[in-house]
Amino acid sequence: MPKENQVTLSTTQFTFTIYKTQIGIAILTIPRELVEISGWDAIISMTFGWLVALIIGFLVIHVMKNNPNETIYEILPKYFGKWIGKSLCVIWILYSFLIATVILLTTVDIICLWILPNTPTFLIMLSFIIPIYMLIQRGLQAIGRFAEIAYLITIWMPLILLVSLKNGQWLNLLPVIKEGWLPIFQFIKLTAPAFLGFEIIFVLYPFLEKKKEAAKGFFIANTLTLVIYLFALLICYIRFSQAEIRAFIWPTLNLLKLIQFPFLERLEIIFLSFYIIILLMSVVPYFYMSLMGVNRLFHKKKHIPLLPMVCFIWLIIPFIKSPSYFDVIVIGNVTRTITNIVTLLMTTILYLYSYFYRWLKKERVP
Questions:
Q1: For residue 32, what are the domain limits?
Q2: If we measure between CA atoms, which residue out of 348, 355, 365, 347 comes closest to residue 66?
Q3: Residue 139 forms part of a structural domain
């Protein structure tokens, strides 16, 4: 088991860490990405995406049950041998770091556009790097506790969107299955990756205090994510037409512009100020997973020396080239393809190979 074996996660911390890792940038853009089918068709496609993620997540848990005290960085070399296993570990490290970087860059871009357009990008980046550094330095248990706190202080946020339904058109949801089932199934390639974040189970499971509750915790986290996605989709499609949604970059945030109170202007600024906490919780677990992988490869006890180095690389990105929204979109599309290959395909192969590995091991026993 990893050196941090004295660290344990409660089922609640396990659940909310997965949930907050899943809920990130996707909820802000998914209404626009599914606008071609919209209405109930998008709801159905999103539900199928949840089902795909649920199945893959249960495969992950099954693999971990056979290796309860090991992370993915010990499992891969054990199953595939030293060289292939370590090569796959490197792929997983790069994948985790790529996801963390894309989420961070997108978050900084959102803050620059919506809240602080005149603030230098590197200062906004620095304001994120400091709490990320502190959480990673404190370790996995601190991340789990922060996930619990993040859930409690942001639980009110989806309810605010209900106010925007005042002049909504419920007929926008009709007709149901207007283009047949084929488009619904085709868009699963967009809805399933929206639930990514469950792969963090590969590093959380060994530290889970009650491992028998892993499946329950994951099911709750994945279902909470589905509820939030369906909530945002329904409100966007009721309030906006297809043409309006196509014109928006962040449709979910545009809902907030419709909400006005006599005592408050620009609700989206307050909303985003709290949503930053959720975005932060999407970056930290992936970053932690990548650093853990480096430690396992080089047999380091702590990731502290590498942590400031990576944070410094993030900090100088705005000086080299400040990514525009379109840069982030292109990177995001490439990342989605990579996630489909690395997470969905690699997890399935790992699950099938685990069966073969155990069968082969039994055959060798005289």
A1: 11-350
A2: 355
A3: yes
Beta strands (DSSP E) in 227-340 are: none
In a domain, 129, yes or no: yes
Q: Name the domain count of the chain.
A: 1
Instruction: Give one word for 215, left, alpha or beta, with left for phi > 0 and alpha for psi -120 to 50.
Output: alpha
CATH code (residue 80):
1.20.1740.10
- Residue 306 resides in a domain: yes
d(CA 110, CA 103): 11
b/e 261-295 (16+ beta carbons within 10 angstroms → b):
eeeeeebbeebbeebbbbbbbbbbbbbbbbbbbbb
> In this structure, what token pair is assigned to residue 142?
């601190």
Model pLDDT for residues 183-218, shown as the tens digit of each residue: 889 888 889 889 999 999 999 999 999 999 999 999
Torsions phi, psi of 192, nearest 5? Answer: -60, -45
Percent share of the chain, pLDDT over 70: 93
**Rounded Cα–Cα distance for residues 182 and 233 (Å):** 20
AA identity, residue 218: F
Q: Is the pTM of this model over 0.85?
A: yes
- Residue 1 domain-assigned (yes or no): no
Residue 238, exposed/middle/buried by CB under 10 A (0-12, 13-18, 19+)? middle
Task: Report how far residue 336's alpha carbon sits from residue 253's, in angstroms, rounded to the nearest whole number.
Answer: 22
Report pLDDT digits (tens) over 278-289: 999 999 999 999
